[in-house]
Specification:
heterodimer; A: 16 helices; 64% helix; B: alpha+beta; 35% helix
């Protein structure tokens, strides 16, 4: 493999001279530094997105009463601390936008993708290090554009993260002017960043696997990132196109989505959800990969059904292109089409079920170590089960007619995106922190954070199913305006109090990251006795990842408790005397 | 059961079918969920680490993979086919209409148009009333639903009925109320800063009360 050799030469060359501060920490081409940059960007954005959520929960529990401590907010954002409807609409729009595009995607894809791909496939860096750097900085610019929309006249976008036209297409309908334009521009720019990343990931995984690292020896987290990158590559251009059309409608006088000029509002929904459903899997597949690796490691057992796990992810990726209509059952789309989408949607439940059963199978007759990473990974499985099962109601078109656009949907997406993706993030950060920063994360703080988060998360989002069953619409800012929702207000208050605890608990996670960076125990090379290649590099790995030659791979990633050796793990790169040189 | 699970009281003819499907899924989901969680917790407790223990080297089982793939697929596809006819009844065809309305959504009101004494829409004697929809009980109500500006959603929680109102399209909606009373028609699709609080009142009356009310409205409007 000549490309590997070329990169190896590049790596060896790079070690010869020290890089300056700017090239090391700011405009770095090192995949590990770029991964950390994505992590910090996402954590910063998470605090803003989280604050939005807290303010919304205040409003829903105590409608139209001033938020304590927010009297200083100028009009028209707030009136003496009370949230007006348009600010509320801006908050849930920005909460979702930030959490999806600037938190979950940058951490799962940007941070873990960058950090893990070269280290786990045995490469010195990404295929295109400069493109990688550009990808981060373009993403950061998108973040600045998005945040700047808070400060323009009319406030930020307020048409929901789905920005349904014509609401989003004509400024007078929302009263938002530049905010929506900046929203479109920011996501177009972010799309460019993600495209660069995905091309890089695909190229790296296809071309730069070390000797012996066949596709079916890749850790599942790499499989998940590979499939995610393909989804990103194919889905984002669709979103970019839709956003460009929306911008033309807003600024150029076109009528793509405006019926007054012969346009079609449903076209926006088709384009948006054609991107949007693969997007859902972009945000969950890497977390599935992370959970698979961590559960195998701490069960000290091979992942149950390795190939079926990989095939299930590929199946999910394929099916994710033909289910988008389930977001549009009540949209006025031909009901016969709704029936077809109901069947594809039911079918996409199958590979998710396969994955869940395989995770349980991995625990069976294991030797389970309850580290913080493992607890979070197990929580991922349990919460994903709830999120997946609640999807069955939505897939059923007649039932969806009732629960569509209610809190049942809000509960579902948060069980998948917080219960799923974010517990995956907590697990992944805790698990790879030693490799990323060279120190162990504090287990006590980690467990305190886990338990509070786990309990508060369920107290926050489980009752939302009940609200949804009561018919509670989403995106309303004062439930007390409806007689049929008044009896449910106690539940809203309970949810809000739980949400405040949940929000506050995340500071423990942030504090642990900072505390452990300075005070954590020095991490050994392989603290978890894991098999994959990143644990054969120093903690943290230097430029070029391995000081000597690149490791050679002799076996799959999950040879835990193998009868071949006395220890309960068998690294991928460890040569056994009797093992044939499987590397060719 | 659903009345105890916070569902609003159902007053539509198709509501029981929807609630039945909800309940069916509820029991399937509960069984799967409880079985999965019990398995998980039992494994977590039984196979926790103890000194001197080593995990058993098991790579998987093709037989199990085939069993759980097939079982899940069969249950889900059967569910889809069970739902199919209910969906078709509600959204694709349905019984012939007995009372007719044209409903147009406009930020942030429901404009309910009654056909006037001649019983025809698009004539001069049509009467439009904001947010007040009166219907006779046990009659098939047919609505031509549209919007004048953005997308709204016509939602009657007590009927389990929801349909987006889309500008540029006229969407046919039907229902048949089985009980008289006062109900709400909230907008369920984000439609702007006045979305929260956008709601109409639905009054289901006996035929006599309805006729009297409608005659009053026509008289007031001078038709």
């Amino acid at each position: 493999m000549s490309s590997t050799a070329a990169v190896a030469a590049h790596g060896a060359h790079a070690e010869h001279h020290e890089l300056g501060f700017l090239r090391t920490y700011v405009f770095s081409e090192d995949h590990k530094m770029i991964a950390r940059q994505f992590l910090f960007l996402a954590l910063f954005m998470m605090s803003i997105g989280g604050l939005m959520a807290m303010l919304m929960r205040w409003e829903l529990a105590f409608p139209e009463t001033p938020v304590p401590g927010f009297h200083w907010m100028p009009e028209p954002y707030m009136y003496d601390g009370a949230i007006p409807p348009n600010t509320y609409n801006g908050m849930f729009t920005m909460h979702a936008t930030i959490m999806i595009f600037f938190v979950v995607m940058p951490i799962l894809v940007g941070c873990f993708g960058n950090f893990l791909i070269p280290l786990m496939i045995g490469a010195r860096d990404m295929a295109f290090p400069k493109l990688n750097m550009l990808s981060f900085w373009v993403g950061a610019v998108a973040g600045v554009i998005m945040l700047s929309s808070f400060f323009v006249t009319g406030g930020p976008a307020a048409a929901g993260w789905t920005s349904y036209a014509p609401l989003s297409a004509v400024p007078i309908y929302t009263g938002v002017d530049w905010g929506q334009d900046l929203w479109c521009i920011s996501i177009i720019v972010l799309g460019a960043s993600s495209l660069m990343g995905s091309i890089n990931y695909i190229t790296t995984i296809v071309n730069m696997r070390t000797k012996g690292m066949y596709f079916f020896r890749l850790p599942l987290v790499i499989w998940s990132l590979f499939i995610t990158a393909i989804l990103l590559l194919l889905a984002l251009p669709v979103l970019t196109t839709a956003l460009a059309l929306l911008l033309f409608d807003r600024m150029g006088g076109t009528h793509f989505f405006l019926p007054a000029g012969g346009g079609e509002p449903l076209l926006w929904q088709h384009l948006f959800w054609f991107f949007g459903h693969p997007e859902v899997y972009i945000m969950i597949l890497p977390a599935m990969g992370i959970a698979s690796d961590i559960i195998a490691t701490f069960s000290r057992k091979p992942i149950f059904g390795y190939r079926s796990m990989a095939y299930a992810m590929a199946t999910i990726a394929f099916l994710s292109w033909i289910v988008w209509g389930h977001h549009m059952f009540q949209s006025g789309m031909d009901p016969a089409l709704g029936s077809s989408f109901m069947i594809t949607t039911m079918v996409i439940g199958v590979p998710s079920a396969i994955k869940t059963f395989n995770w349980l199978g991995t625990l069976y007759k294991g030797n389970i170590h309850y580290t913080t990473a493992m607890l979070n990974a197990l929580a991922f499985v349990a919460m994903f089960v709830i999120g997946g099962l609640s999807g069955v109601w939505m897939a059923c078109t007649p039932v969806d007619m009732y629960i569509h656009d209610t809190y049942f949907i809000v509960a579902h997406i948060h069980y998948v995106l917080f219960g799923g993706s974010l517990f995956g993030v907590f697990a992944g950060v805790t698990y790879w922190y030693p490799k990323m920063f060279g120190r162990m994360m504090n287990e006590t703080l980690g467990k305190i954070h886990f338990w509070i988060t786990f309990v508060a998360f369920n107290c926050t989002f489980f009752p939302m199913h009940i609200l949804g069953m009561g018919g509670h619409m989403r995106r309303i800012y004062n439930p007390m305006q409806y007689d049929f929702l008044k009896p449910l207000q106690g539940i809203n208050i309970f949810i809000s109090i739980s949400a405040f605890v949940l929000g506050a608990a995340q500071f423990i996670f942030l504090a642990n990251i900072i505390y452990s960076y300075f005070k954590g125990a020095k991490a050994p090379e392989n603290p978890w006795h894991a098999n994959t290649l990143e644990w054969t590099a120093p903690s943290p790995p230097g430029h070029g990842n391995w000081p000597g030659a690149l490791p050679t791979v002799y076996r799959g990633p999950y040879e835990y408790s193998s009868p071949e050796v006395a220890e309960d793990y068998l690294p991928q790169s460890q040569l056994l005397e009797h093992s044939t040189a499987a590397a060719d | 059961m659903l009345e105890h699970l916070w569902f609003p009281h159902d007053i539509s003819t198709f509501g029981p079918q929807i609630d039945w499907l909800f309940e069916l899924i509820f029991w399937i989901v509960m069984i799967v969920w409880i079985a999965t969680m019990i398995t998980m917790v039992v494994f977590m407790v039984r196979y926790r680490t103890r000194p001197g223990r080593k995990a058993e080297y098991i790579e998987g089982s093709s037989r199990l993979e085939i069993i759980w793939t097939t079982a899940t697929a069969v249950i889900l596809v059967i569910l889809a086919f069970l739902s199919r006819s209910t969906w078709a009844d509600i959204k694709e065809h349905g019984p012939p209409g007995q009372v007719f309305y044209a409903v147009s959504a406009k930020q942030f009101n429901w404009e309910i148009t009654y056909p006037g004494p001649d019983g025809k829409f698009g004539t001069k004697d049509d009467v439009t009333i904001e947010n007040e929809m009166h219907v006779p009980v046990n009659k098939v109500v047919r609505i031509d639903l549209t919007s004048k500006d953005v997308i709204h959603s016509f939602f009657v929680p007590n009927m389990r009925l929801k349909q987006d109102a889309v500008p540029g399209r006229i969407i046919k909606v039907w229902f048949q109320a089985t009980e008289t009373g006062q109900y709400e028609i909230p907008c369920a699709e984000l439609c702007g800063f006045g979305h929260s609080g956008m709601k109409g009142n639905l009054t289901v009356q006996s035929q006599e009360d309805f006729d009297k009310w409608l005659a009053d409205q026509y008289a007031q409007a001078g038709k």
